[in-house]
Design a protein that fits this description.
Layout (H helix, E strand, L loop, with lengths): L1 H13 L6 H21 L17 H18 L10 H26 L5 H24 L8 H4 L1 H14 L11 H16 L7 H26 L8 H17 L1 H18 L6 H9 L5 H21 L3 H7 L1 H11 L3 H16 L11 H4 L7
Helix pairs in contact: 1-2, 2-3, 3-4, 3-5, 4-5, 4-8, 7-9, 8-9, 9-16, 11-13, 11-16, 13-14, 14-16, 15-16
Length: 376
Amino acid sequence: MLWAAVWLIFHACLRPIWSAHDRWLLLSGLILSYNLFVIWRNLPANHRHGEATLLPALGPGNALTLVRGLCIGLLAGFLFGPWPSGALAWLIVLLYTLTDVADYFDGFLARRANHVTELGGVLDMEFDGLGTLVVILLAVSFGQLPRWYLALGLARYLFVFGLWVRRRLGRPLHDMAPSVHRRVFAGLQMGFLSVVLWPILPRPMAVIAGTLFALATGLSFVRDWFVASGRLDPTNFRYRQVQQLLYRAFALALPLMWRPLLFIAMISIFRAAPLPVPAAWQSLLGEWGIPAPSLFAFLIALVGFTATPLVGLGILPRVLAVALTLPIGFDMATRGLMADNALALISIVMVQLFGPGPFALWPAEQRFMFQRLGER
């Protein structure tokens, strides 16, 4: 009843400002109905792991997960239509950002309340996959991402379907080995999808960053499929050797190259031209009542000048790499795709994916990347 009320109120607010409101009503209603079906079907799993007694309430973690399901349904209503402009475009961004924030905190609330259930795990996976698919469909239809990116949105469903086929054929299935990097890559992928629909994000920036994040996430899916189907044994000595070799290359050796290259690329960006404000930002600043875009550009440049040497030294590198997307994006929106801003973008994405490597002075955010909120 609560979902239906929000759905109808949302449509009533949308009707005067969005010509495709009827299509929105149909699509969002279908996805919300599917999400409710998933919840209803899995209610018998509302018990703690290792117990059989049903809990009398859903708990705060599952309640926040239901907020995710609601936001995904509202977001899906904008599929197969034109990219809205103005405040409506930012509403789409807000809906998916809310799903990301809820995804980060729902497990924390469940652990704090001692209410970790199998239901919560199922809903988390279902809404992760559906939310990823919906936002990728939107980004592809709006022209922000290439069509091949749909394969990543379908990856989880193809993976589950493949497991179902093997089970039906009586073929063996193997447990997937625990992987910290799997969760890190998935989290960074979701973080990227939170900003890919920003109307001010240059398309080349979205394609380059999206390709790197997709490769990391996609290869993780491929590895998991080989393990689940028995083609790959994670305890095999040769596999562990290859794994260690890849780790040393991407997490230890290559970061020593990305950090200096980022420093050189950012110097080239700042020497190329003063950092102007792109036209899309100028109109947005005008709507927000900020009359001095030059001051705004100065602040963005200051962020770049400050964050660049700190990332190079390995001081909060993953956090400040995110801050560097602002000056890089501004430069790409004004000068277009150039060798220096492309190199700077690739460098910060690689630092986010694999960390700063050795000789980093203060990578304080590392433990938050590999440890879930509220876990000891």
